[in-house]
Amino acid sequence: MSRKKLLWVLLVLFTAFVLAACTAGEDAGEEPDDADTDTAEEADGEEGGEDAAAEETPDLDGKTLYINNGQEPTSLDPSIGFDQVSWDPLNNLMEGLTRLDENSEAAEGVAESWDISEDGLTYTFHLREDANWSNGDPVVAEDFVFAWKHMLDPDTASAAAFLAYYIEGGEEYNSGEGSADDVNVTAIDDKTLEVVLIQPTGFFLDLLTNPAFFPINHQVAEETPDWHAEADTFVANGPYMLDSWDHDSEMIFAKNPEYWDADAVNLDYVHFSMVNDSNTQYQMFQTGELDTASVPPELSDELIDGDNVFIGEYGGLEFFRFNLTEEPFQNKKIRQAFSYAINRDDIAEYVVKQGVEPAYGFVSPGFTAPDGNDFREENGDLVAFDPERAQELLAEGMKEEGYDELPPIVLSFNTSDTIQAIAEAMQNMLSENLGVEVTLENQEWNVFAEAQQNLELQFSRSSFINDYADPVNFLESFVSDSYMNRTGFESEEYDELIQKGKSETDEEQRYEYLYEAERMLAEEMIAMPIRYYNVVVLEADGVEGILRHPVGYFDLKYADKTE
Questions:
Q1: Residue 44: what pLDDT?
Q2: Distance (Å, rounded) from C-alpha 377 to C-alpha 368?
Q3: The pTM is what?
Q4: What is the pLDDT of residue 250?
Q5: Which one, of 431, 70, 94, lies nearest residue 235 by Cα?
Q6: What gap in Å lies between CA 228 and CA 80, rounded to an integer?
Q7: Helix ranges restricted to H, 131-203
Q8: What is the pLDDT of residues 420-434, one digit of tens each?
Q9: pLDDT class for 39, splitting at 50, 70, 90?
């Protein structure tokens, strides 16, 4: 792209940012309107919440942290709200068997200890005697059995169900080929839970920190199936309880006196706003109505180096999928040509900003291999910007397919200013570097998600936020039968690599399988990586103790606010 043309594009993008930039969560990363989770049905890209206007902030009697959730949670049922705007609140209202600690490692939660069988298949969890629900009921093993089978029940249609396929009988029940009785999770007694896995899974304790594995008070749920829909019926077992919920406007959490570790909780209240505009929430931060806020993109250069800015890693990737069932992307060389034509450095530095890193691989930085090296550094750069090579590959691919000219190319994306800005930059690069004219198609989230799932989109935007701290989490998305594949790619060789990458007990060998799988993804180029996610958050003076895990959901258990 010529420098003159790039500057013109940037001026257009800057204008778009100024007019309207959106946010989807208090710490939804560098570009909160876009910090979706593919695993989370990409609901962060969804602008399903209303643009709630900033209202007068209530004055609560006690130490209160004021933060922004961006929009209404999709659901506070742990099996249904498979997105950041649901799981951020849930991670503070509830707690699983394990909980990420200050070092972002899986530590004791509801379970005070556990035993693992010699073959690595059977986990026996011992629940705390003082673990209670906010209504005073004890948290019992049956609450986990009920919750996990609810997640796997085909009638629940949980997007998170695949996470429980590590449990024996889980996939069979969820796919309709088995029954709830086949799911090998058992309440031995009120405070003892036994779980049997289909294969050794070294990251299982980390997996259990995911909100999808939170318990559900089975007695409350049986009496009130919609217990999770209103504050007066919601029961919590985490650091906070749901004090009030004004839908599409605000949520107020209060310290949960029944929580087993209540003495560690410093705040009396947490007030969640639902403001879906980054400029509005920044203004609220300036006036003291919010204690934390995302950085509006147009102010990134001005604010990014400030003293009150938190910048951290956030495991995730923004990428674009090719539909291998539609022309011309059945041809690998044409897919590779498109990738070589994209200047990821320019997109990261000039379009997204916020200190994000361009993506030259699929697995984001932050995953430590057995040898102590970072997965990303170990497997190196797998894609590159090379316009000349792009043109060569395009010519070769077109010759293989007998094309005199390419079929029309349509790039589809879900509605968001930042996503549109990236799409426009890519459109310009493909024209400038490859001579390919691309039509942009903007769709609302629900329409876009369904069309992508049904392989109706030729070339479309996606992103992924890791559910648990292991590189296989992203790579498993592209096995042949995964509903998250959404490309038409099928490969027995790739499927076998992922299976070995899950079950191999020698960690060094397991990582070798994962390195090979990622290299295969890059060679096949079924998806084009663009940039990694990060967390950039403004914090008011006196705010401390908020845990923002590189992989996981933000934690207010130890948060504090001093004068």
A1: 35
A2: 10
A3: 0.80
A4: 97
A5: 94
A6: 10
A7: 141-152, 170-175
A8: 999 999 999 999 999
A9: very low
For the residues 277-302, what does the mean pLDDT come to? 90
- The residues that bridge with 374 in the sheet, in sequence order, are 368
How far is the C-alpha of 524 from the C-alpha of 141, rounded, in Å?
45
**What percent of the chain has a predicted confidence (pLDDT) above 90?**
75
**Biggest alpha carbon distance in the chain?**
73
Nearest to 28 by CA among 58, 61, 70, 82: 70
Q: Is the distance from CB of 501 to CB of 116 less than 8 angstroms?
A: no
* Three-state helix/strand/coil letters over 474-491: HHHHHCCCCCCCCCCCCC
Computed over every residue of the chain, the mean pLDDT equals 89
Helices (H) and strands (E) in the chain, counts: 17, 18
The CA-atom distances, in angstroms, between 446 and each of 47, 434, 484, 527 are: 9, 32, 16, 21
**Cβ-count burial of 211 within 10 angstroms (0-12 exposed, 13-18 middle, 19+ buried)?**
buried
Q: Is the pLDDT of residue 52 over 90?
A: no
- Which residues, other chains included, contact 47 with Cβ-Cβ below 8 Å and sequence gap of 6+? 22, 24, 33, 71, 276, 415, 416, 444, 445
Kindly give the pairing relationship between strand 459-465 and strand 409-414: parallel
What burial letters (b/e) apply to 98-118, b meaning 16+ CB within 10 Å?
bbbbeebebebbbbbebeeee
Smallest Cα–Cα separation from 298: which of 311, 282, 284? 282
Residues near 187 by Cβ (< 8 Å), separated by ≥ 6? 140, 141, 142, 144, 145, 193
